[in-house]
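Protocol step 4 of 5: obtain the predicted structure for the target chain.
Materials: sequence only (see below). No template structures provided, no constraints applied. The aim of this step is simply to have a reference model before the mutagenesis design in step 5. Sequence pasted as it appears in the construct record:
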Amino acid sequence: MKKFISFVLAALLFSTPSFAGVFKVDSLDVAQPNPTIDYMSPLTGAVARTYESKFSDMVSVADFMTSAQYADGQTGTPTLSVASAFSLAASAAPAYTQFHGNPGNTIASAPTARVFVPNGRWTLGSLVNTGNRNIVWVFDAGASVTDPSNLNGSSVLADQLSSSDTSGLYNSAASYSIIANSDPSVGAQVNGIISPSQLGAFPSRDSVALYTSNTGVPATITIPSATYTATTIVPATPLTADQIKLLRVGMLIDTQNTPTKYSGVITGWDAAGGTYITVSGWYLSPGPGTSATPSAAGAYVNPITKIFGGNTGVYLPADGLAQESAGWEFDTYNDIADPINYQNEPVAWGVDSESIGPYKGNSAFIAHGKWFFGFNANGQDYGFRYTGTGTGLSYGGTGPAIQVFDGVNPTSNQEYALVPNAAGIGTEYGNLSVTSTPYIDWHSSGANNDYDVRMIVSGGGSTPGGGNLTISAATIAVTGSIATGGNRVLSQLDIQGGQAAVAISVGASPFQYTATYGGSVAISGGAVSQVTLERGGTLVYTSTLADNDIPVRAGDIVTVTYSTAPAMYQLSD
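Step 4 output (structure tokens):
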């Protein structure tokens, strides 16, 4: 084909060395295998190459349009389909084959090529046939298509690579946009109103440096029913011509076998009739990585089962100098004022996660894998805040639900822990390695005092249960029985409830009473010098207090020595 160009030769050398002048070429046929005129870039170090090579750097769809089609695209309301021009350009563009991932990867992908789409509004009346290549359509700043679903490839908008200033709506409000599995002409959803009247409903005026979106889509091809060999799938109904156009080497394919699917990598297909697709092998997924032949079932070609708006990876290799890493760093700089609370202006959020669909998302933040801390806050006014009507903290693990450490050794000196176990949830207070007197203060008066009731623990040792508990309170009221495994002294204890007391007739001092049932023996009044409790022939308790409430079992012997007889009662459990 003819490429019409005009150019100036700064120095055209003939047999006469002194001749120099201007030479104009009106037309050059670069389709000829050996054009007689070379192209020389003015850049330092450049070497000459043919104009055929130069013009093939990037193919343009305009190269394959008629003048009527091209003019139609400039009207803004095109009526002529240029799908054939797009198809021819895709097939003609120089392509390369990628091997994605690690250097040792041998899984090839479909050939990839770039095609330029010039300014204009272009109509694609049918699915573009890319020759089963991965085509990157490079759109000029003013280029668009009326039906992007027929584009059959990826697209890049030339003027959205970077921008120093943003303004207005959609793409203009974003410096750079990446849109996956969706119509790119919709643009970045920034300040995404469709009528000026909506400005009042959305008062925020957003500016975005990088906008990304990804949309879950159906499988590229769904095969309802098929049979299989070790390296092929044979659809019960052959693929259509348009379905064949969508196939790419390197695409993944999943069978619909249940409960476990098989997966393969596409290596080829029947281009003429669509009667089969070949794969490198079928592998149970999830499974041990050994190949097997699936039983009859349908399949999904290019299934996308999980989508990401962004996915970053950072690595700290053993031989690298880096000792720190961050998947993302979010910095904000507030030079206005401190906010009054978490939502008053000025507002500066590190991350803003919002679920805007009709149904709830699972988690605004999730940590999994080998993290020392799933969440770490350091130096904030509040490490965590919850407002709402739901549960502030939900825990379903097996380790401590909450641990509080001292500031000296924040990983070992535990001060408080809420620990689940087989018997339920246990609470632990105090330092495990340093002697301390942990306490709990209760406030009930509203008097802004130090405490209304305090429970404080001291002493103890390596044997469980050896510490001392002190309760500072005006009154301790017990509505049921108090049982103890050791000696106990109760003074001025208000015991409420239980069965009616049975009076004991007190004999001469020292008076002995044998309990007929379990409960307690209450002793009050009189002039008592000593009270003892004997159980199974062993003296287990001695007291000189005048008032006693002694827990007893049936058969226990209570001995009271007195100068004036006290009142005695047997109380049941």
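Step 4 remarks: Confidence is low (pLDDT under 50) at residues 1-25, 487-498. The chain is about 5% helix and 30% strand.
Proceed to step 5.
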